[in-house]
Input
Amino acid sequence: MSPEPSRHGSASGLRSLISIAVLLSLLTTCLALAGSDAVTTLSERDVSEPVEEKVELLPCQPVDAELRPTVPAEGLEDFHGLRRVRRSKITGKVVTMEVAQIKPVVVARRRSSATKAIALTFDDGPHPTYTTKILDILAEHNAKATFFVLGIYAKKYPHIIRRQIAEGHEVVIHSWAHGNYTQMSTAAVAKDIARCQKLLHSLSDEPVALRWVRPPYGAKNAAVERIIAQAGCQVAMWSVDAADWRQPGGNALYQHVMSHAHSGAVVLMHDGPAHREGTVKALRRIIPGLQKRGYQLVTMSQLADLVPVFTGEVYLVTGSDCIHLAPAAEQMQVIIDGEPIQPEHRLLVGNGQLLLPLEPFIERLGASYQWDKQRQVVTISGLRGTLTLYLDSHRAEKDGEPVRLQVPPVLFKDTAFIPLWALANITGAQVRYNPAQELLEMHSALTAIPQLSNTLANLRH
Output
């Protein structure tokens, strides 16, 4: 009978065999890589390049309803986009980068109402033909406008100025004879504005609030702005240039103004001194068209009394995707396991899908979660496994395997919102969502299983 080998001898022989195998493996690898680029050998346990992820909060970018940049409003301080940067721990190079921008929708509204408003403004008049026609159109639709007049024509046609004032329009200054203020001395600019003020005050029986000066060509600098302020006025520019001075025709002007119209817009057009038939023709459609869209046509001073207001809606822009997010109806009924609940945060609707805040839904559905706010990652553990969600990203993981969500979870203000169907999938909850009835009814897996058993039993009978 052969003697039993010692434990020490057996371990020593095993180590020898492993060493030989490792040497043969290294030799084979070296032969295969001969003449190729150099590589970095990683440890046996780490076959991929180690990376570190950093998440930065980005300031929000307010837009109007047509996704055009606009001014900030109150209530946007807590809205942020996200930038996720994954870098190699070895080289420091960026491996991947994801940028999600939050663009809150801001509109200009009256302090006393929710009316949308636009200011139509006209330069270089008055003109005995075109200004009169424009006033007739405005009167027909009960719309107001602002006329930036030239002193030489205001002096020539004072009856038009009086009509503009009498009908509730705003008459303000566009210089005496359309000289470029930036090419004039400061004394000449001050004299030009004072001359206009004296004339316009003399043409009305009532005091005229000459609040605005629009420098010819829009040309201004610090000196021009200072002189206008010293005259007790404000610089008036524009946000939509109809470019009617090019005389493109009424149809082109109509399409241009309507496609660029937004609440709070200041539209620049002309009522003199050249041919303005195209402007008049376009206005016959522009004014009723804007009113049909819900806009009130106001003067510049009336528009200045408007304030930017956040509508509660945002756009989430990730790469080429743009998702519209808005709070669900305030009347939305939420029922979990037969019990009505009142969430602290209103639900969201994104591209027709419902998104729910973490609380109180996760625990009510028999699951648990962790929210890593440094990485903006939410991990949900439910009946059907573990779901890892990256806020403001379509990227997700189900039990460690990558998946892609049609509507991503979002960081909306200071709360994480999860797509309804992703939450139902991981918790096993049954869902009935009826947008028309503004009803969301959910049954957790623990209550859904008995209900299913009862249903099957009833079917047997």
Observations:
- The first strand starts at residue 51 and ends at 59.
